[in-house]
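Because discrete structure vocabularies remain unfamiliar, we reproduce here a specimen of the format, pairing a chain with its fold in token form:
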Amino acid sequence: MPHHLKVCPPKPLVVQYANGRLVALQLHLFVIAHLERGLIAGRPHQRPAQGKTRYSGPALSYQAQQAGRAIKVAKFPWAASGRAATIGRSDGLTKLISDASSGRVLGVGIVGHGAGELIAEAALAIETAVTVEDLALTIHAHPTLSEGLMEAAESLLHQSSP
């Protein structure tokens, strides 16, 4: 009997791991779920470290424009972060994108030390349809780098609609 070998492009390890966990969950709970590939953190091992969810730039703006939806964007520079200053890594940035009418978090981009670890909170916020207000009201320990997401959310709350 001949053996057939299928050659597939390699997937990032984090995607393979997430798919494996999803299969285990489906088998355990007997539910059908799907992995939202746009929520997987990207490029956490680059220098500087980067983490992003869904779209964090022009692609989201374009899609929103095509759908007739307005978005809001806030950026929190880590130069204003007490924790970033204490560890000497104040060159980072947290960017938060939300739907202007509903306030739902649509995308996040983080550049800086530990971005690959910080992006998980953003992925959870998107997956569970968290609003900017919810995120701003979530208590974050001080001083931490994760406060950048809260600060960006507070900034969005104070923006007027486009």
